[in-house]
Amino acid sequence: MTKADRPIGIFDSGIGGLTVFAEIRKRLPDESLIYLGDNARVPYGTKSAETVIRYSLENAAFLAQRDVKAIVVACNTASSVALPALSEKFDLPILGVVLPGAKEATGATKKGSIGVIGTSATISSDAYARALKQLDGNVRVVSQACPLFVPLVEEGWTDNEVAHSAARRYLAGMRSEGIDVLILGCTHYPLLKPLIRDVVGSDITLIDSAEATAKALESLLEREKAKNASQSNGTYQIYVTDLPARFETVARRFLNNDIPIVRHVTL
After folding, report:
1. Which helix (H) or strand (E) holds 57?
2. Counting C-beta atoms within 10 Å of the first and last residue's C-beta, which end of the chain has fewer, N or C?
3. Which residues on neighbouring strands pair with residue 35, listed in sequence order?
């Protein structure tokens, strides 16, 4: 098997990374993908950095054993703390979700004022703010935690009064802050795009970190001369570390019912 023919590995603490999986599948249909959802140990956001790094190394080792050519860390928490350890341990290209989203945002803003929404853990980690400031020291960052968004997405409540009420409460202040770009800093949030756009207004550009990561992955594969150009559809595998049934139910919402068999593994 040539380097280009090898699969791409993707891992997340649970199910949210399937938005990244979906965007990669759409943008790079020739690539084979292996997804690992560590749903036995979700959430990562409440764990120490040392624990998240240990879990991330175990996840990456599982993927590396399957001869992947690159690893995408489709988890904001792991992307915030584990990338250096992963790059040191594995002789593979490693891509997180934070930097691609930050790069898209700095390229899109005209006012130099960028909003970031995410889980409480992601916002308190300041990962996006740090990445944005590294890219542009003059950028102004407005952050807002939206802790109810993840359970709403997993419950399928993306367009009812409860979801609208939560979105208005979290996001109403964003417009008055003068932002012109808003980063969806959680892999669940793309499923709430219409709702978020309705609340913040169509003049604010939404940055989907899943889309940005898929673009960044394509560029990475081209630089590494590892892009599959066989023009044959890739194969897809999904593994989870806990029972697959609940995962499969929620995954149908993320992948429009187009999901491969979900298999249980022990790391």
Report:
1. helix 49-64
2. N
3. 10, 238
- Is 116 among the domain residues? yes
Please give the full DSSP string across 197-262, using - where no structure is assigned.
HHHH-TTSEEEEHHHHHHHHHHHHHHHTT----S-S---EEEEESS-HHHHHHHHHHHTTT--PPE
Answer for the pair 10, 24: CB distance below 8 angstroms, yes or no. Answer: yes
Residue 212 pLDDT exceeds 90: yes
Query: Helix or strand or coil: residue 11?
Result: strand
**Kindly report the CA angle at 5 between 244 and 223, in degrees rounded to 5?**
105
CATH assignment of the domain containing 229: 3.40.50.1860
Name residues whose C-beta falls within 8 Å of residue 80's C-beta, 6 or more positions apart in sequence.
Answer: 96, 98, 122, 125, 127
Q: Is 146 a catalytic residue?
A: no
Amino acid at 212: A
> What pLDDT shows up at residue 97?
96
Distance from C-alpha of 178 to C-alpha of 4, rounded to nearest angstrom: 44
For residue 112, the 8-state DSSP code is S
For residue 2, tell me if it sits in a domain: no
pLDDT at 235: 93
Q: Catalytic: which of 74, 186, 214, 240?
A: 186
Mean pLDDT of 32-50: 91
Q: Is 215 in the same domain as 92?
A: yes
Task: Tell me which of 15, 68, 75, 98 is the catalytic residue.
Answer: 75
Domain that holds residue 175: 98-209
pLDDT beyond 80 at 77: yes
- In the chain, the amino acid numbered 16 is G
Q: What is the mean pLDDT of the chain?
A: 93
Do 216 and 91 lie in one domain? The reply is yes
Instruction: Copy the structure tokens of residue 170.
Output: 């979290």
